Amino acid sequence: MSNNFVVPRSPAQAVPPHTPGMRIGLLGGSFNPPHQAHRAISQFALKRLQLDRVWWLVTPGNPLKENGTLHEVGARMQAARDVADDPRIEVSCLESVIRTRYTIDTINTLRRRFPGLRFVWIMGADNLAQFHRWQDWRRIAAQVPMAIIDRPPQSFRALASPAAQALSRYRLPETKAAGLADRPAPAWVFLTGLKLNLSSTGLRNPDGSWKGTK
């Protein structure tokens, strides 16, 4: 895949269009490659959380993963835009612009620069299972409400994880999901009902190339 994307120079240029008061879901990931599950999760979150937009934050690299086969950010950005194919889903390379690999720094930057927006952090149950390994994970939970998308068979492992147990008193019932963006952090909801098992790992060849793009 050709890389015809130019990384912006400033955070303001890297952030998608928005207006004050918008409810915005943040879905971070390597998107190596992006796939239909990313799109389905985003559309599911838009509906269940009553969001205005979901921003895909394409990371320079995941500190918890081997990044030797990671495609260039421009190629991943372009592929993500092609897969998203929904005007409510925007793709951003903010982390490449502010030169960070940690979610807490990204969230701090967004909240500081755009105080009029209401953010929700979105992640799959597989990420909740290892959330306690993330840099400053307790501070992340204290900064933004979080929506966890169930990904069977990860449900039990995720809900029994150290982070889920530590944050259990802040968990909301699914019936209150539509108001999550209006809640002060910490607050989180575990959303069930989406049945998709696609993963970026399963869509990569052993050499790191994307299946169907060789």
Automatic annotation (TrEMBL):
EC number(s) stated in the UniProt entry for this protein: 2.7.7.18
Location of the Cytidyltransferase-like domain: 26-188
Catalytic activity: nicotinate beta-D-ribonucleotide + ATP + H(+) = deamido-NAD(+) + diphosphate
Superkingdom classification of source: Bacteria
UniProt-listed Pfam families: CTP_transf_like
Biological pathway: Cofactor biosynthesis; NAD(+) biosynthesis; deamido-NAD(+) from nicotinate D-ribonucleotide: step 1/1
Keywords, in A-Z order: ATP-binding, NAD, Nucleotide-binding, Nucleotidyltransferase, Pyridine nucleotide biosynthesis, Transferase
Claim: GTP-binding is one of the keywords in the record: no
Any one GO molecular-function label of the UniProt entry: nicotinate-nucleotide adenylyltransferase activity
Nucleotidyltransferase as UniProt keyword: yes
Role description: Catalyzes the reversible adenylation of nicotinate mononucleotide (NaMN) to nicotinic acid adenine dinucleotide (NaAD).
Family to which the UniProt record says this protein belongs: Belongs to the NadD family.
Designated name of the protein: Probable nicotinate-nucleotide adenylyltransferase
Lineage, broadest ranks: Bacteria, Pseudomonadati, Pseudomonadota, Alphaproteobacteria, Hyphomicrobiales
